[in-house]
Amino acid sequence: MKWVTREFVHVDRTACPWLIRKFIDLEAQFIFAPTEKIAEIAKTQGATPFDAPGVKLGHRNGKCSFETIVEEYKLEDPVLHELAKIVHSADTRDTELAREGIGLSAIMTGARYNVNDDFEAVEKAAYVYDALYTYCKIKLLRRKYKDELAKMNRKEQREFLRKKMQEETTG
Question: How far apart are CA 161 and CA 15, in angstroms?
Answer without folding.
Answer: 25
